[in-house]
């Protein structure tokens, strides 16, 4: 055993971290393998403009990508580019029939996003300061939490499921979607006003952990629960009922 250990230590580079050039080479090889396999898929069709339609899923997660390797047209199922180093969504599909995930990247903008996503759209844990470039319509949930957003301008007009913008730097809800088919979660921001909230929320409404001193501007109807504790002012249940018809529980 001792002889084996000595031989291992004789190899100077065995415990050295990979160099930047080594990592770049491995990444290129990984991408090249993905491209070769992708072009051989029976559910992939190349269009005249050079883009690719995919009658299935696309998984580009955890590949250390700084940009998407090809231009996509329509993806019939899910599109996943989570956990990369993307700074742009250029090349993204125009239409995604399933979910679209671009969490945990280095995105500062959503320009290049699909125009329509029938499922969920997740862009959390990036460096977004704006939602300009978001899809026009999202059939499922839309989550943009854990970014650096100071405004919701550019949000989709319609979100079929939950809308989550928690843990940003928002001071206002102006620019929110007009229609939200699920819950609306804007907790852990710096909100001083609820002006701009959707008029109707089909799920719960969470505005906890902000700087609110008034509930004016809140949704008129919330089909789920209404949470507004841990704000600058301690609200009462009566104050909530004055501005909103809450069908669930009220937590102040």
How many helices? The count is 3
**Overall geometric form:** elongated
Strand order of the largest sheet: 3-5-7-9-11-13-15-17-19-21
Mean pLDDT: 93
Backbone structural class = alpha/beta
What does this structure look like?
The chain is of the alpha/beta class. It contains 3 helices and 21 strands. The N and C termini lie far apart (66 Å). The model has no long low-confidence stretch (mean pLDDT 93).
What's the short version?
With 252 residues, this protein is an alpha/beta fold. Helix content is 14%, strand content 18%.
Indicate the topology.
Blueprint lengths: L1 H9 L9 H20 L4 E3 L5 E3 L3 E2 L12 E4 L3 E2 L14 E2 L3 E2 L14 E2 L3 E2 L14 E2 L3 E2 L14 E2 L3 E2 L14 E2 L3 E2 L14 E2 L3 E2 L14 E2 L3 E2 L9 H7 L1 E2 L3 E2 L1
Parallel strand pairs: 2-4, 3-5, 4-6, 5-7, 6-8, 7-9, 8-10, 9-11, 10-12, 11-13, 12-14, 13-15, 15-17, 16-18, 17-19, 18-20, 19-21
Antiparallel strand pairs: 1-2
